[in-house]
């Protein structure tokens, strides 16, 4: 096994671990994996041995898949923050029209509170 093959296996392992972290939601481990991925990329760049095109294609597919997972995680976090904010701020005032055609607004003075609990 050449050093190029070993580096490719190392990079594949890091990409698999990154995909697992992104699918399970344990995002606190991402910085460590990012560092390992950077080190593997650097090691692959300085390897002067010819790489196997199928190996490199597989790595590219794994990295593309992880990028999609990362975007989905980012969107999910943004959605959760928006929903939590909406719940915390309560409903918006409701504007209605009465029988005589005049607009009136119903204000909600109650502020909601969201409690987070882990089970």
Describe this structure in words.
With 119 residues, this protein is mainly alpha-helical. Helix content is 64%, strand content 7%. It has a two-stranded antiparallel sheet. Helix 1 packs antiparallel against helix 2 (30-46) and helix 1 runs parallel beside helix 3 (53-89). The mean pLDDT is 84.
Summarize the topology:
Layout lengths: L2 H22 L5 H17 L6 H37 L4 E4 L5 E4 L13
Helix pairs in contact: 1-2, 1-3
Helical fraction: 55-70%
Q: What gap, in angstroms, lies between the N and C termini?
A: 47 Å
Structural class: mainly alpha
Low-confidence parts lasting 5 or more residues at pLDDT below 50?
A: none
- How much strand? 5-15%
Rg on CA atoms, Å: 25 Å
Count every helix, treating DSSP H or I runs of 4 or more residues as helices. 3
Major β-sheet strand ordering? 1-2
The strand count comes to: 2
Mean pLDDT: 84
Keywords:
119 residues, mainly alpha, rod-shaped, two-stranded antiparallel ribbon
């Amino acid at each position: 096994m050449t050093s190029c093959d070993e580096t490719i296996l190392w990079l594949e392992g890091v990409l698999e671990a990154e995909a697992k972290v992104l699918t399970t939601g344990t995002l606190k481990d991402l910085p460590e994996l990012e560092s390992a991925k950077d080190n593997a990329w650097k090691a692959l760049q300085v390897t002067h041995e010819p790489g196997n095109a199928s190996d490199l294609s597989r790595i590219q597919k794994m990295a593309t898949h992880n990028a999609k997972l990362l975007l989905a995680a980012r969107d999910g976090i943004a959605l959760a923050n928006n929903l939590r904010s909406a719940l915390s701020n309560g409903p918006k005032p409701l504007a209605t029209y009465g029988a005589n055609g005049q607009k009136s607004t119903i204000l909600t003075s109650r502020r909601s509170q969201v409690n987070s609990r882990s089970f």
